Amino acid sequence: MIENPSSDFSYTYQEYLPSPPLTPFVACYWTLDYQASSLQQPLHRIPPDGCVDIIFNLKARDASTSGFITGLMSSYEAMRLTQDQSLFGIRFFAETVRPFIHYPASDFREGPVFLEEAWGLDVNQLNEEMVAALDSAHRMELVERFLIGVLGRNNVRSEPLLEHSMQYLYAAKGRITVRALAEKLNYSERNIRRTFQKELGVSPKIMTEIIRFQNMLQELHQAKPTRFPDIAASYGYYDQPHFINNFRRLYGMSPKQALR
Fold it and tell me: Which fold has domain 10-153?
């Protein structure tokens, strides 16, 4: 999200769906293009979405450092855009990303990691091809061919308990307690917490909050302001201060500021 957009700068963000073989793993591909202006330095705000991204910086001076992995976020980030940007991203579901990054998503919580460090020097050909590609359609073909190849060669699989837990969280839109989740899975709460911490680096409660917030945010964006209190209540925010404080914690601004 860009704050206070105007005609003084060019900003484009788009999302694309993956092909069927990759839909259990990839939420979407995305592109961000921004042409800097001397008049403004807008703020790009990123709320947590429960995903892990591989991002290619298409303006990197060295193609070998163009690709990097960013871990799961548990709070918002805000970046001041001061120069031209051209990014291509692969947004993975955190619970099924492990076959592609070889390690638990929790290993990438400390900050971006270059693809070369995770995949070795062989990935530099992909980095170079992504930077040289003429358009997003060609880049999607490149990454899909690469990802399907990785999936076919790799015997690393995601943690089944984590996958099953996340299926329940998605189905409930985050409106489920850890205790209720444990009862559905027939596992102890302790076992579930340990699995989330080991694989994702966050607790199931935090992941539930993120999924609940994302679902609520989508509904708020599509609704009239008069319906905001009812939507918030349907997600468990029964009083306005609780709703506003939680929204500000995950988004960095109030609902009124974000949804105007």
Answer: Jelly Rolls (2.60.120)
CATH class of residue range 160-258? mainly alpha
What is the C-alpha separation between 162 and 44, in angstroms, rounded? 31
For residue 213, name the pLDDT band (cuts at 50, 70, 90): very high
Closest CA to 100 of 166, 141, 146, 131: 146
End-to-end, the C-alpha distance of the chain in Å comes to 13
SS3 72: coil
CA distance 84 to 104: 33
Q: How would you classify the pairing of strands 85-93 and 51-57?
A: antiparallel
d(CA 36, CA 20) in angstroms, rounded, equals 36
Chain mean pLDDT for the chain:
89
User: Can you list the pairs that 60-66 forms with residues at least 24 positions away whose Cβ atoms lie under 8 Å?
Assistant: 60/131, 63/124, 63/127, 63/128, 63/131, 64/114, 64/116, 64/124, 64/127, 64/128, 65/114, 65/116, 65/127, 66/127, 66/130, 66/131
Structure tokens at 178: 């850890």
- Topology alike, domains 10-153 and 160-258: no
Alpha-helical segments (H) within the chain: 98-101, 115-119, 124-132, 136-153, 160-171, 178-185, 189-200, 204-222, 228-234, 240-251, 255-258
Instruction: Write down the domain spans for the chain.
Output: 10-153, 160-258
Q: What is the pLDDT confidence band of residue 110, given thresholds at 50, 70 and 90? A: confident
Here the tokens at position 68 are: 């990097």
Backbone phi, psi, residue 92, to 5°: -95, 145
